Amino acid sequence: MGKGKVIGTVAAAVVIPAAAVVGAIYILPLLNITSSNTLYYFGNDASVAADGTISLGKEEVLGYSSKYSDTMTGYFKAQLNENETYIYNAVMYASENGYSDIFLPEDVFDGGYDRLQELEYVITFLSCDSPFVAHNYTTNSKLTGNVEQFAGKSYHHIQLETLGEEYTSRREAAYEKAKSVVASIPQECNTDRKKAQYLYNYVAENSVYVTDGYSTRNVPIADLLIDGKAICDGYADTVTMLFNMAGIETASANGINNSKNEGHTVNFAKLDGEYYYFDASADSIINEKGFKPAFYFGMSWAEASDSFTFADEFANRCPKAEKSLLPDST
After folding, report:
1. Which CATH number applies to 174-315: 3.40.30.10, 3.40.1360.10, 3.10.620.30, 3.40.50.300?
2. What is the rounded CA–CA span in Å between residue 66 and residue 176?
3. What is the DSSP letter of 311?
């Protein structure tokens, strides 16, 4: 899938000037801008021509597959309608390809929610499916209410956090590290459970849970796999990535840590046909105290709910796992 029109510098909003319409082709006026990071989606319109640039049509957006498809299974994406999937794929494409500003046709918003609520709703699910889309996108991004006119149509302007070369290089380094970790799974780990236990232990035993001095611009998976320290997002995203790369269907879920009454993220995964819950960050803290990281591996829904309250949008969408792998489970 080709890149769309890039206009403007870094995070500033771009006001699109009027354009002439030639058949199905929109011709943009000449803009004397060379640096660019803005992506335009033009719904079902065929293309946009200016300086040799094309746009992305709706079917192309709906058909987009992540360049990191081996790291995600799209558990939440499968529960979205067509317009929500359009938004999901558009933001995923922008985040994977370094765009900070995107314009979406207003008709993709179905009117069931406020536009900003719908954006947050969809981006939150994307961040829990994909380890490469940060969980703080909806708080750090400028999900503005700006609606701008172009060629007689309304477009919703979304400003994402600008991601530079350092961010991209750390993301790629983490991806390569993940490949080597998955390749190191011993031959005797020949079931989903054994593979998951090996990878989970790797995450819990090779990192330290930190909060002081943590920057929200960090790459959570790189924090853990490269630097050996992370917050809960880093643990959850790394488990999502490693498990999926090993062929284990996995995603994460947001909510509240009951003991601290603060935001938290956990995982759920399907092992040998059954769903279970996992909290690698909690087991990493256990590991630091000298205990085996097995207190939060393979929880049932009820057991996970003892320490974690699922956010409303996840409570009815996450699997209600009945079985448990905890040692003292009956």
Report:
1. 3.10.620.30
2. 16
3. P
Cα–Cα dist 238/280, whole Å: 9
Which tens digit of pLDDT belongs to each residue from 107-138? 787 666 677 788 888 989 999 999 998 776 55
For the segment 260-313, what is each residue's pLDDT rounded down to a tens digit? 888 899 999 999 999 999 999 999 988 887 777 789 999 999 999 999 999 999
3-state secondary structure of 55: coil
Rounded to whole angstroms, the Cα distance separating 273 from 270 reads: 6
The rounded distance, in Å, linking the Cα atoms of 302 and 312 is: 16
Q: In what order do the strands lie in the sheet with 297-299?
A: 297-299, 274-278, 262-271, 250-257, 308-310
Residue type, 242: L
Rounded Cα gap, residues 148 and 111, in angstroms: 18
Q: In the block, which residue shows the tokens 């060379």?
A: 34
Residue indicated by tokens 């409570």: 315
Quick one: 213 exposed, middle or buried, by C-beta within 10 A (0-12, 13-18, 19+)? exposed
- Structural contact between residues 13 and 162, judged by C-beta atoms closer than 8 angstroms: no
Domain ranges, ordered by start, for the chain: 20-159, 174-315
CA distance 301 to 283: 17
Tell me the three state secondary structure of residue 41: strand
Token pair 């448990």 in the structure block, residue: 324
Q: How far is CA 306 from the centre of its chain?
A: 26
Output the CA–CA distances (angstroms, integers) from residue 260 to 143, 256, 264, 307, 308, in the order listed. 28, 8, 9, 10, 10
Residues whose CB falls within 8 Å of the CB of residue 157, separated by 6 or more in sequence, listed in order: 13, 14, 101, 102, 103, 144, 146, 147, 148
Q: What is the pTM of this model?
A: 0.83
